[in-house]
């Protein structure tokens, strides 16, 4: 598998340290498969890049942070200090290895449009406690936050957060509008890329997936586009760069064909994260979230 066909190679296996980790994982799987599976799972769930590289210890100007205990870690929720609680509530969530600051320009645009944005940081990200997380934990966190906030008008989510948001809405999270920005490929695909990055064979990959499903109590297949799309009954906007090298455009194309009320805005030259600060994208998202 080449690096061009495996985006995870550039993330996990681009250094001598990663090569040594791969050799260690392969040896562990050969000598003691159970240990090898546990080590692979620990590495897979460790948030990279580390939050220390991007963490902001103070809330952005005009925003206040709240720390909510959650599972064995915490969530960080940011609200504007001058928030008008009568405005429609929009929840914004980042992706894997991201943080709330990445969604801040969108949040400010939504505020200027008369909405009430709330930013969420998942466990192991930004100012939240913990050093690891999982996609199922993202899903559980969204459901928990939605219950506490109540009456969500819209959810705007990026990358792995978008995959979690789609699953949450499909499981009944109440929101009138949904925006999925560069949604990640399914965990079945990502685990395959992960295993390929470290040279793990098919048997090791199968054990790895079974261990994740047993630990998290969910089959990974629930995050497949074929499962997510038909359950997205709310108006859903997909925004994706056609040349995205982190989250391939094909995921949004597939969701578009399956979600009954989806629209796709395809962009070029913005990559995986620059679309979060692009003026045209922010205007499109704001218009989509505007009530009426």
Descriptive report:
The chain is an alpha/beta fold and 292 residues long. It has helices at 8-12, 16-31, 33-45, 104-112, 135-149, 160-170, 187-197, 202-216, 225-228, 250-258, 279-289, and strands spanning 63-70, 73-80, 89-93, 116-121, 152-158, 175-181, 236-241, 262-267. The chain has a domain at 62-185 and 231-289: 3-Layer(aba) Sandwich (Rossmann fold). It is built from eleven helices and eight strands. The chain has an eight-stranded mixed sheet with strand order 1-2-4-3-5-6-7-8, sandwiched between helices. Strand 5, helix 6 (160-170) and strand 6 form a beta-alpha-beta unit. The longest helix has 16 residues, at 16-31. The termini are far apart.
Quick structural gist:
The chain is of the alpha/beta class and 292 residues long. It has a domain of 183 residues: Alpha/Beta hydrolase fold, catalytic domain (Rossmann fold, 3-Layer(aba) Sandwich), CATH 3.40.50. It is built from eleven helices and eight strands.
Short descriptors:
single chain, 292 residues, alpha/beta, Rossmann fold, 8-stranded mixed beta sheet, 11 helices, 8 strands, 18% strand
CATH superfamily membership of the domain at 62-185 and 231-289:
Alpha/Beta hydrolase fold, catalytic domain
Q: What strand order characterises the main sheet?
A: 1-2-4-3-5-6-7-8
The arrangement of helices and strands along the chain is HHHEEEHEHEHEHHHEHEH
Largest sheet: 8 strands, mixed
Secondary-structure class: alpha/beta
Count of distinct strands: 8
How much of the residues is beta strand, in percent?
Answer: 15-25%
Distance between the termini: 48 Å
Task: Calculate the mean pLDDT score and round it.
Answer: 91
């Amino acid at each position: 598998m080449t690096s061009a066909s495996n985006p995870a190679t550039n993330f996990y296996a681009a250094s001598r340290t990663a090569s040594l980790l791969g050799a260690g994982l392969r040896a562990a799987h050969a000598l003691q498969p159970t240990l090898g599976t546990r080590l692979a799972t620990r590495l897979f769930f460790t948030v990279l890049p580390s939050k220390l590289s991007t963490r902001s210890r103070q809330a952005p100007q005009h925003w206040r942070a709240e720390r909510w205990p959650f599972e064995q870690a915490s969530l960080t929720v940011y609200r504007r200090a001058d928030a008008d609680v009568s405005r429609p509530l929009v929840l914004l969530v980042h992706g894997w290895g991201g943080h709330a600051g990445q969604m801040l320009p969108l949040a400010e645009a939504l505020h200027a449009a008369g909405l009430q944005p709330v930013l969420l940081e998942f466990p192991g990200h930004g100012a939240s406690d913990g050093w690891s997380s999982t996609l199922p934990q993202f899903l559980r966190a969204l459901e928990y936050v939605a219950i506490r906030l109540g009456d969500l008008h819209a959810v705007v989510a990026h990358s792995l957060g978008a995959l979690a948001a789609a699953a949450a809405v499909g499981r009944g999270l109440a929101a009138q509008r949904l925006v999925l920005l560069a949604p990640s490929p399914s965990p079945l695909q990502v685990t395959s890329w992960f295993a390929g990055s470290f040279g793990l064979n098919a048997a090791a990959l199968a054990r790895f997936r079974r261990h994740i499903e047993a630990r998290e109590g969910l089959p990974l297949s629930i995050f497949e586009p074929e499962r997510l799309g038909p359950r997205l009954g709310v108006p859903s906007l997909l925004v994706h760069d056609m040349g995205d090298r982190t989250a391939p455009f094909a995921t949004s194309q597939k969701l578009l064909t399956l979600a009954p009320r989806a629209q796709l805005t395809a962009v070029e030259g913005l990559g995986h994260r620059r679309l979060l600060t692009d003026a045209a994208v922010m205007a499109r998202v704001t218009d989509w979230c505007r009530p009426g």
